[in-house]
Design brief:
- This protein has helices spanning 14-23, 31-39, 43-46, 69-87, 108-128; strands spanning 2-6, 49-53, 93-95.
- The protein is mainly alpha-helical.
- A 3-stranded parallel β-sheet has the order 2-1-3, with helices on one face.
- The two termini are 17 Å apart.
- The model has no long low-confidence stretch (mean pLDDT 76).
Length: 129
């Protein structure tokens, strides 16, 4: 079983710092493992592949602030599309991260950033698939 986890960060430690936050210091505090168990209680023992996605959303001010709604909007659009794309991959991957839609998903800036991220993923999988 392959798993895809998608996240966002503007922290100074980048994706590795964010991933460390998701793993937590103790199993019960690990948001990644907690989310994996919500998806499938025995998935940890069966997981044979893990893909962590990170993509540059651009340098618009809206993506570089502590306020997260624009990044969450991009993440929501990307996750929705990747659930379809990765389900068709060989081997298929299951997206277990989750994010809620918000008012920013309708903004052209957010939609354009999401489309760039999705295209980068498509190019990656086309080249490596």
């Amino acid at each position: 079983m392959g798993v895809a986890y998608i996240g966002m960060t503007v922290g100074r430690n980048g994706i590795f710092g964010r991933w460390g936050d998701h793993l937590g210091r103790a199993l019960e505090k690990s948001s990644f493992q907690r989310r994996l168990r919500e998806f499938d209680d025995s998935a940890w023992g069966r997981m044979d592949d893990l893909v962590i996605f990170w993509a540059d959303m651009g340098d618009a001010d809206e993506f570089l602030t502590l306020e997260t709604s624009h990044r969450e909007g991009v993440e929501y659009i990307v996750q929705r599309q990747l659930r379809i794309l990765l389900g068709r991959a060989k081997p298929p991957l299951t997206v277990i991260s989750k994010v809620r839609s918000n008012r920013t998903v309708q903004l052209p800036l957010v939609q354009a950033a999401a489309n760039r991220v999705i295209e980068n993923f498509r190019n990656h999988f086309d080249a490596n698939g």
